[in-house]
């Protein structure tokens, strides 16, 4: 099994984040397998035209970090959970998770998200509690979603 390394690059402009970039590197070849790069400007334009509920850029990047970094960003999991749990129910519902998706995966569907949630959601209630969400991030399932892996 090949191991992947993740490198993170954050650019700021006047003290606020202007873009984030994650590079997934094959540990054997050192070559980049995937690059995810999002600028605030492009995000805000896409969010304005998405026609559905999306996260603000500053919240989006707080969620994107643990999704991409997995266990390396374990400290960021509680903040990401609170951001995604928009109705403060203590669980992340499928529709709440979907608010993260439209910009990073324009063609992403709730059915696709459901397939990934089922790997973790032991009781199949279509919601992730904080323990399930932590497992979801630690196992790299968030990264699989962003990179559209199965
Ligand atoms: Ca909720």
Automatic annotation (TrEMBL):
Keywords: Calcium
PROSITE patterns the UniProt entry points to: EF_HAND_1 (PS00018)
InterPro entries: EF-hand-dom_pair, EF_Hand_1_Ca_BS, EF_hand_dom
Membrane in keyword set: no
MF-aspect GO terms: calcium ion binding
Protein name: Uncharacterized protein
Species, as recorded: Rotaria magnacalcarata
């Amino acid at each position: 099994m090949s191991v992947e390394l993740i490198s993170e690059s954050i650019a700021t402009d006047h003290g606020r984040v202007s873009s984030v970039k994650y590079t997934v590197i094959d540990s054997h070849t050192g070559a980049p397998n995937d690059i995810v790069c999002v600028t605030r400007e492009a995000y805000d334009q896409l969010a304005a035209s998405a026609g559905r509920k999306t996260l603000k850029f500053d919240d989006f990047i707080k969620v994107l970090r643990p999704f991409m970094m997995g266990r390396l960003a374990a400290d960021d999991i509680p903040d990401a959970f609170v951001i995604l749990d928009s109705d403060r129910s203590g669980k992340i519902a499928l529709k709440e998770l979907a608010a993260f998706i439209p910009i990073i995966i324009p063609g992403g569907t709730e059915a696709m998200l459901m397939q990934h949630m089922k790997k973790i959601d032991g009781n199949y209630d279509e919601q992730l509690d904080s323990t399930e969400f932590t497992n979801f991030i630690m196992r790299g399932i968030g990264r699989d979603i962003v990179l559209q892996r199965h």
